[in-house]
Write a structure and sequence with these properties.
By secondary structure, this protein is an alpha+beta fold. The protein is built from three helices and five strands, in the order ααβαββββ. The strands form two sheets. The protein has a three-stranded antiparallel beta sheet with strand order 1-3-2, covered by helices on one side.
Length: 95
């Protein structure tokens, strides 16, 4: 595990919860931290904002799997996306 995540209990819990899912997709969790970190930041409920960049070709996949994401803008073939913030309710997301 990368040093920046060694003490992050939320990341450890996420990894433990989704380990079998990643393994069933033949994703090596020991080397695929970029993918796992992105999914963790996208999926956790946090009071901190998160932003993502994706190729426009992946737009429909991202929007269908994460409807709480908000498009910020597009540039040079990429789409810039923000995660809505959680406001005192685990089931709702708000900008």
């Amino acid at each position: 595990m990368e040093p920046s995540f060694e003490n992050n209990q939320s990341f450890k819990d996420y990894l433990k919860l989704h380990r079998s899912e990643y393994e069933s997709q033949n994703i090596n969790i020991d080397i695929s931290y970029s993918l796992i970190r992105t999914n963790w930041m996208r999926d956790i409920q946090s009071s901190k904002p998160s932003c993502f960049v994706a190729k426009i070709l992946d737009e429909e996949v991202i929007k269908s799997s994460s409807p709480y994401l908000k498009e910020l803008y597009r540039k040079n073939g990429f789409i810039f996306i923000s995660v809505y913030l959680i406001i005192n309710n685990s089931s709702s997301r708000q900008v």
